[in-house]
Amino acid sequence: MRERLARFMAGRNGNDQFNLFLLITDAVLLLVGAIFDGVGRFLYPLAVLLLIYIYFRMFSRNVYRRREENGKYMRLRFKVSAALKVRKERWVQRKDYKFFTCPSCHTTLRVPRGQGKIKIVCRKCGSSFIGKS
User: Fold this and answer.
1) Measured distance CA(111)–CA(133) in Å, rounded
2) Whether 26 and 87 share a structural domain
3) How many domains does the chain contain in total?
4) Burial (CB count <10 Å: 0-12, 13-18, 19+), residue 112
5) 40 and 12 together in one domain
6) Which among 130, 102, 123, 97 is positioned nearest to 112, based on CA atoms?
7) 128 & 63 share domain
8) For helices 37-59 and 17-35, what crossing angle results, to 10°?
């Protein structure tokens, strides 16, 4: 039986990170639909369509296209996780530093707190502005 399944899946996409994300999203949709009755009639058809798409991706022989889709998802996931990491670092440093945005190039600048009104010079573009730390 295992050999037959392996032969059937040969040359097919199988499961990847994007499929796993879609599967978790589908489970959440089904759970929300089960909890809230009024919303369920709209979410169940959406969940079924999403499940059909998951199986389509899994059994697809167009591996190149599925890898492109997975690559786009992974790049987007990296951007989101990097942005969340920056937010977390800023939250941890909020007591010691104040953050400003350069009006010219929109670079984030970090200044120690408790300095009063100071002239802040952007390292990237060289423009300066006044800010209260």
Assistant:
1) 7
2) yes
3) 2
4) exposed
5) yes
6) 97
7) no
8) 160
Indicate the SS3 state at residue 68. helix
Shared-domain flag, residues 6 and 55: yes
88 and 103 share a domain?
no
CB atoms within 10 A of CB 2: 6
State how far the Cα of 10 lies from the Cα of 32, in Å rounded to an integer: 36
Look up the domain containing 40 and give its range. 2-93
Distance CA 7, CA 12 (A): 10
Instruction: Write out the chain's pLDDT in tens, 133 residues.
Output: 888 877 777 777 878 899 999 999 999 999 998 888 788 788 888 999 999 999 999 888 888 999 999 999 999 999 999 999 999 999 999 899 999 988 888 888 889 998 889 898 888 888 888 888 8
| Alpha-carbon span 13 to 27, nearest angstrom | 21
pLDDT for residue 76: 96
Q: Which of 95, 52, 51, 69 is nearest to 13 (CA)?
A: 69
Determine the pLDDT at residue 13.
80
**117 and 129, same domain (yes or no):** yes
Please tell me the pTM assigned to this model.
Answer: 0.72
